[in-house]
Amino acid sequence: MATDTQPPAPPTPPAPPARHGVLSAGRAAIAARHLRTDRWWLQPLLTALGLSAFVVYSTWRAFANAYYYAEPYVSPFYSPCLGSNCVDMPLGARWPLFGEWWGLSPALLVLIFPLGFRLTCYYYRKAYYRGFWASPPACAVAEPHEKYTGETRFPLILQNIHRYFFYFAIPVALILTYDVVLAFRDEQGAWGHMGLGTLVLLVNIALIWAYTASCHSCRHIVGGRLRHFSKHPVRYRMWTWVGKLNSRHMLLAWLSLVSVALADLYVYLVASGAFDDPRFF
Amino acid sequence: MSTYTAHFRVWRGDADGGGLRDYRVEVHDGEVVLDIIHRLQATQAGDLAVRWNCKAGKCGSCSAEVNGRPRLMCMTRMSVFGRDETITVTPMRTFPVVRDLVTDVSFNYDKAREVPSFVPPEGVAPGEYRMLQEDVERSQEFRKCIECFLCQDTCHVVRDHEENKKAFAGPRFLMRVAELDMHPLDAAEEQGLDRKRSAQDEHGLGYCNITKCCTEVCPEHIKITDNALIPLKERAVDRKYDPLVWLGDKIRRRT
User: Fold this and answer.
1) How many whole angstroms separate alpha carbon B177 and alpha carbon A248?
2) Contact B96 A163 (CB under 8 A)
3) d(CA A62, CA A108)
4) Does the domain at residues B106-254 carry the CATH identifier 1.10.1060.10?
5) Does the keyword DNA-binding apply (chain B) (predicted)?
6) Cβ–Cβ of B159/A22 closer than 8 Å?
7) Least confident of A9-23, A107-121, A224-238
8) Which superfamily does CATH assign the domain made up of B3-103 to?
């Protein structure tokens, strides 16, 4: 049965009372801030790298103000175009609401909405709190901050407006859907054609809708706020459907983030002449 | 059947101090960490304190940290570790230690008492409660909780910030608030108790930054964050931060 024992280690002195967190007085005196032996750092690292790559790419493209339209494709970063300095996009969502005074890239006027939607998203909050702010870096790994107030005060209390960004995300997704319809044309504007770009935009909008519909605020609005599902069978059914999507919210968040960047990159490559859009019919 | 000798490091001590001690101990096929702790107790460390009860993952007694991760010792199979791996077992590091692997979890009972209990509906006697399955199934998920307090242990709000213990109820008891707020017969609101508002104002829901560690460690696989905490946050938004919902409620009450 049992076997040899090593001589017991001498007890360590008690933890200093002024220390905080897992080193607080009264808790088990363990000097290490965590004892995890797995690669707990890998996930926050990959998250931070993935999000950083998107931020760098999207910042470059948003400020570039060039190569965002190649008949019949428009980049999702530049639609709808609300500035008067947009290129001509036949039938495209081009509404110069901001007039002549706006001299910067028109993408900046519209990207604020999807940016706000993703920034306040419950999944992305987890991702960047862990990946960038180390709060916490991983479960049972001590965070480096001495004080923590969470989302109780400004600015993080503003995370509570997520549902308003969800409301704005719906018209943006509708406009991008319209852009996909326009993509079923050829370079001369004739209908009933399709190219690789059409497929890229189609996949992108499908993922954007799936991500938007899987949102936790959406789940709450369609039925989650009810107490008696039995009195609202249609909303209960919708809540069930959204719940199924919601369980894949993280996956959809990443897929739609990658797809929107790839869709923009595709339009950039075609518009800049680096790549010829293969036409299917 | 195969047997091997594993290297265990177990925290021994009490509130005055202590440290990790090394043990070499036999392991047999099919055993869990709690079996090994019991073998240590029986053969090498007769005074090793450990809290346990059912050995079936249902009583929530044997919560500890195995290789730094909050887990039930009775549900942690030895086969998940390499035979050469050193296995470190410590008490939960969020609560005051009593002795060895036993911690004082009374913080959780204090927090439990702070959550107002179910308010019976007027005019319906006990035994006459009737609810449809679709109305209760959300709450039923939360009733699977075995109160092992691993979610409370792993939550960085209190684990890394002792000072937040006063203001923050922790995931287990915010889930309790959500369970009652979703209960089809709870009459708290009719009695003037707004659970949505009190979740934020009195139980510290705003401290939760939804990093999902509670969900990761739950041995009952309850989706604490997605099904309890986030819905509760959305309900708190209805009450406190959404003027459209506020206006809608006002208009509906008048008509």
Assistant:
1) 25
2) no
3) 6
4) yes
5) no
6) yes
7) A9-23
8) Beta-grasp domain (3.10.20.30)
